[in-house]
Amino acid sequence: MRGGMDDRPGAGGSRAAMPGRQGKKLARAVRSSVRGGALGSAPPAQQSAAPHADHDESASSSEDELYANKVGNIPMRWYETYDHIGYNAEGRKVMRAPRSDAQRLADLVDPESWRKVYDEKNDTYVMLTDAELNMIARLRENKVLGVNEEEVVAWSGPVMQTPAYPLPTEPKRRFQPSKHEAKEVVRLVRAIRNGWKSQKRDENDLVHGGAAKMYDLWVKEQTRALEEISKAERTRQLMHASAPKLAPPTHQESYNPPEEYLPTPEEAREWMDAHPHDRETNFLPTKYGAFRHVPLYENGVKERFERCLDLYLATRTVTQKLRIDPESLIPRIQKPSELRPFPTGLSGTCQLRIPGKLRAISLHCSGRWLLAASTQGAIAAIEIPSGRVANVWHFDKLQRDAERVDDGEEDQANASSPRELEPPSAFLDAGVLGKDAKQLVPELPVHSVRWCPRADALVFAAGYRKVLYVVDASRALGASESVASTSALLMEHSKQVTSMERQKNECVWAEVYEADASRENGTRSDVEKNSAQKSKHPRSKASPVAGKAGDAKAEQSEASEEEVVGNGVKDEPKVSRQVCALVIGHSHDVKSVDWHKRGDYVVCATRDTGGGSILMHRISRRQSQRPCPRAISSKAQIVLFHPSRPYLFVASQQHVRVFHLVEQKVVKKLSPGVKWISSLDVHPSGDHLLVGAYDARVCWMDLDLGDKPYRVLKSHKKAVRAVGFHPSLPLFADVSDDLTAHVFHGSVFDDLSKNALIVPVKILKGVHKERQSIGIVGLAWHPRFPWLITAGVDNAVHIMTDLV
């Protein structure tokens, strides 16, 4: 509200009745009273009312309250840009009062304009009454408002006998002994002398010696039996939750802290600039010379208040405390001496004299025969009890002889003596491989070799170049007791195979038969001659190891004349011919080979620069198929069968996939977290995997715990070449290029709540030699004893036993 007519733009006021400057001051003095509602306000239609009319409380009608502005105590400049000045009680806009030039002129000539005060909130002019002007005058003279001087009466009458205020001096009786208390003392003394009052105290209030018993308010209550405690008191004791204690003060809270706890000027400035919530402490450590110099702590009351709020608002619950021995939670790591037996040292060595360097080894399930494959196509059979080399198969020479026989068929009629395959124990059929075999299969080592898991058969599978060989080794090793079972394993069940099934094969199958006695004497058998004659005819393009394709007539004539071995027409086999090997041709190099536990299926992973695939071969039916989709098989490097379930473990460069052979889907994808997987082995239970990598890591994968490794072992300094579980004992090992073999104890429990226990027990080193930054390349466990067999690039095979 602005006082005076000239406070409003365009309005002028008369200054004759009251000086202008003084009138403005008086108008401003009652501005607060007008805003508070003490003064009456009239609507625009009543602004021209009589100036001497008294505006008391009765003048404020309900209609005025209805039209009053209800915006509250806010700056009215917020409504300067609007056509209204606020809202009334009904929520309607209070519009500005229109003011014409005639009204402004009337205000200029109005002699009572000095009584009007502008109400800025309601946009009206208020006419001050005589009572309000009297109030303004009393305010100027610093007098009490609302009191009439004529009503004040001076005091008159007699002087009060009891004044309302105390006397200026204390009475004398207050410094003298009380007579009433003296009479009371005399009465008590007389009663004691006459025996009217006893001086005995309560025995409960006395202790031994007659002294008074003192009670400690802060002592804990004595424990009582449960029978003596009521149910309510027992519940109160059980549900009692004591308040958490404050942390004890530190050195920096001392009034004389050490120098290292005092902040530097930069730290103090940084503490002052930081937000209170970002400060580590709510005070700055300060040093005082004496305790009396310490001022009052400014945050003391605030901290006590917040502490009380925490205790009052923060709920405290009673939780049952678990009484568990912490030592029982820590697994007890057994000593290596308690985990025996395990290999402790070198017991025997066999130095092989075969071309190339050793690449892979495999031990028969009987524990007697060991196969060692080299990088130049040679496989040696070693007898473990004696350490002798029983036989050596040279696959590279066999294929070169086959190519040489095929090239010399035209001059065979003029030859003076029949041509023999070298070495004399060769078993390959010369007609299987054509002239282009050397171009189809490049020079590569034997990447993988595996014995058949059947104990009564001596059959092994080896992948050399693009050919998978399934070889009968019973005759070459002189094991006459296994000849019959081995021959039955390789014998084709021809009655179950149809020509349509042969045409659906993914690979080319060929049978190699046992040589006759005439061959052993230096002459070729009729089987070899027939095979040589068959090699003159061109073969089909479906065979990756055969020659160039011929016309259909040659194939029909060949099928009508004699039996075709491979993807040909079935004929009755001769009884006198015994299959001693199977040759299965692939389109890529064979990298990994594994047998099914029944001994009838062989799975292999093939891969080279042109791609890769996974093929599964059934020996009894001479069938091949692709068990996995091309997206999975094209990246496969290692394949293994599950010991008991229809699963196939497929290892790529960085992942291991578990493929369900029946449902034809990937049930789990494992991520060991390594850069390049080098080896893989499955636990006999089938629930755990060992993954070796070229980045010197060994990962134990638990299929029940997820797709991440349960334990990662980083004990080697160079690449890990091979890993393996023991078939019957809780042992596993890994070998590396750092010429060490690490032996671990790995226990697997039937209780699903317990994880596998892995304890390193032995490091075997100093038995192999390094060649071209490559050390130990293979390992094998004895099926019954804790014997570890290792093979290195130095062509040495070492046997580590626990008998040292």
From TrEMBL:
Keywords: Nucleus, Repeat, Ribosome biogenesis, rRNA processing, WD repeat
Keyword Lipid metabolism: no
Major location category of this protein: nucleus
One Gene Ontology MF term: ribonucleoprotein complex binding
One of the GO BP terms on file: maturation of LSU-rRNA from tricistronic rRNA transcript (SSU-rRNA, 5.8S rRNA, LSU-rRNA)
CC per GO annotation: PeBoW complex; preribosome, large subunit precursor
Biased composition (Low complexity): 41-51
Ranges annotated as biased composition (Basic and acidic residues): 518-531
Coiled coil: none
Annotated BOP1 N-terminal domain residues: 79-343
Region (Disordered): 1-64, 403-424, 518-568
Pfam families: BOP1NT (PF08145), WD40 (PF00400)
Classification via InterPro entries: BOP1/Erb1, BOP1_N_dom, WD40/YVTN_repeat-like_dom_sf, WD40_repeat_dom_sf, WD40_rpt
Cellular compartments annotated: Nucleus, Nucleolus
Protein name according to UniProt: Ribosome biogenesis protein ERB1
Species in which this protein is naturally found: Porphyridium purpureum
